[in-house]
Amino acid sequence: MAFTIKNNAQESLVYLNQKAPSTTPEIFAPDIISKQKEYEFGSVFSKDGTEFFYGVDINGKSEIRYTKLDGNSWITPKTIIVHENYGFNDPFLSPDENRLYYISNMPLSGVGDGKDYDIWYSTKNPEGWSKPKNAGKNINTNSNEYYISFTQQGTMYFSSNKEAVKDNNGDFDIYASKNEDGLFQKPSRLPEAINTKAYEADVFVASDESYVIFCATRKEGLGRGDLYISFKNDDGSWTKSKNMGEPINTSGHELCPFVTKDGKYFFYTSKKDIYWVDAKILEQYR
């Protein structure tokens, strides 16, 4: 089954043929992707806007869904990574799009009780995507690691609570790990302009590493979790992170930021749906 595209111009087919948003956030693809009785989050488009991956929470367990442009139609979204015992979410494509990264509480053995969240990936093959592979000890620890994004050079940005003090597992920080010769290096914790003693996670990094957007829980916040932004200075330092405020943030929980490769659209999750907005809105925070 597929929902048909009326306009045959290729440019109009991308992004599920949805009418482009203004600088006022809108629910993305209502009743197709964002559904009233489901919780959607963690989304990513391919470079050309013709493939879309996203996470969905089903009764407390997450799975990854996928849709693509097939001719003049987008296929009905289908589940591509799911397990009866473990959750999979926060999908993100590698710079060459040959790997799909995501997080899971699946143990390394693939059997038994769920564990802390690790970062995993699958490799693209003619049949689809390979079985999950763990991203390795330089990235994953005995604590939680989640929400992945990449620079064009392959540096992975992610969050972890590995340095949280005892009984404060909500103290997540943001890290960056360079990729050298195909191997992720020991990650470095981003500076205090971004990380605090509060919760910082769900980080999206621009492909040229010029800015990061992330979710944080701070005293000045508007809700349970707000989106913040920080820009990289010419000297390599980061500007003090700034709350993105209204209309992005609300009294609820905003998370899972993503900006399309063409720089046109900013996606995020709010009120258990995926929203999008014209990425021009980011310029007002510089």
Automatic annotation (TrEMBL):
Gene3D superfamilies: TolB, C-terminal domain. InterPro entries: 6-blade_b-propeller_TolB-like, WD40. SUPFAM superfamilies: DPP6 N-terminal domain-like (SSF82171). Pfam families: PD40. This is Uncharacterized protein. The lineage of its organism: Bacteria, Pseudomonadati, Bacteroidota, Flavobacteriia, Flavobacteriales. It comes from the Bacteria.
